[in-house]
């Protein structure tokens, strides 16, 4: 898997370490507001794919286009529910939660854009609040890659990994796109920074000819 399984080399690198407990309550209000904004952007991607499908469908394939649209709306509703942090037990299965999340992201965001999704999720448990904040971060990173990394969609792929390493949970979003010049800058960076602060995590982004890779490292509970 060129550009996905290994770290790109020779590109711009930016690391950010965040985790001040005093900032958490202030950041969380910003995070929620900005996250809702990013969900609107996800709807924009969905709308664009629907317009493309219907314009290509023609009269004979209109039923198929409607069916595809319905499936994407259902997937988007499932994605939004996963990100809403409501009605979950205090501890959740990492494998079940993030496999469900990756499936919803793939169906609602990536497949309509012609982007393949791969996921590798390890087993374990996490507090529901940490799972939901990591999910917001992963969704932000995937949506941003879907919008900007693939001007030429041929062979486009995004890989999501969630693993426990050396006393920390390590979550990675990697694409084989054109390589961002500044992987942790832009409008979405405020969301990522606020969410990272709220769970005492740190971010590392790297980009090169093989694509862009952003890693979230969060201390595991003792």
UniProtKB/TrEMBL annotation:
According to UniProt, the reaction catalysed is: ATP + protein L-histidine = ADP + protein N-phospho-L-histidine
Q: Where is this region: Disordered?
A: 1-23
Which Pfam families does this UniProt record tie to the protein? HATPase_c_2 (PF13581), HisKA_2 (PF07568)
Q: What InterPro entries does the entry give?
A: HATPase_C_sf, HATPase_dom, Sig_transdc_His_kin_sub2_dim/P
User: Which molecular function GO terms apply here?
Assistant: ATP binding; protein histidine kinase activity
Matches recorded under SMART domains: HATPase_c (SM00387)
Could you list the residue ranges forming a coiled coil in this record?
none
Which top-level group of life is the source organism from?
A: Bacteria
| Enzyme Commission numbers on file | 2.7.13.3
Q: Record's Gene3D superfamilies?
A: Histidine kinase-like ATPase, C-terminal domain
Q: Which UniProt keywords apply?
A: ATP-binding, Kinase, Nucleotide-binding, Phosphoprotein, Transferase
Q: Can you give the residue ranges of the Histidine kinase/HSP90-like ATPase domain?
A: 129-222
PANTHER family xrefs: HISTIDINE KINASE, TWO-COMPONENT SYSTEM SENSOR PROTEIN
Name by which UniProt lists this protein? histidine kinase
What organism, scientifically named, is this protein from? Bradyrhizobium betae
- What high-level taxonomic lineage is stated for the organism? Bacteria, Pseudomonadati, Pseudomonadota, Alphaproteobacteria, Hyphomicrobiales
């Amino acid at each position: 898997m060129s550009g996905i399984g290994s770290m790109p080399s020779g590109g711009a690198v930016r690391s950010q370490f965040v985790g001040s407990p005093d900032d958490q309550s202030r950041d969380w209000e910003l995070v929620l507001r900005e996250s809702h904004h990013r969900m609107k952007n996800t709807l924009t991607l969905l709308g664009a794919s629907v317009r493309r499908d219907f314009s290509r469908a023609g009269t004979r394939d209109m039923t198929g286009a409607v069916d595809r649209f319905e499936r994407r709306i259902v997937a988007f509703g499932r994605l939004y529910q996963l990100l809403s942090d409501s009605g979950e037990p205090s501890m959740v299965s990492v494998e079940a939660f993030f496999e469900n999340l990756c499936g919803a992201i793939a169906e609602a965001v990536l497949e309509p854009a012609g982007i393949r999704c791969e996921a590798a999720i390890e087993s374990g448990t996490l507090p529901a609040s940490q799972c939901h904040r990591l999910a917001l971060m992963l969704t932000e990173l995937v949506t941003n890659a879907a919008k900007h990394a693939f001007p030429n969609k041929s062979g486009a792929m995004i890989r999501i990994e969630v693993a426990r390493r050396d006393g920390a949970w390590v979550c990675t979003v990697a694409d084989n796109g054109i390589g961002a010049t500044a992987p942790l800058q832009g409008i979405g960076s405020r969301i990522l920074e606020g969410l990272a602060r709220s769970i005492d995590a740190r971010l590392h982004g790297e980009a090169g000819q093989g694509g862009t890779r952003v890693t979230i490292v969060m201390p595991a509970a003792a």
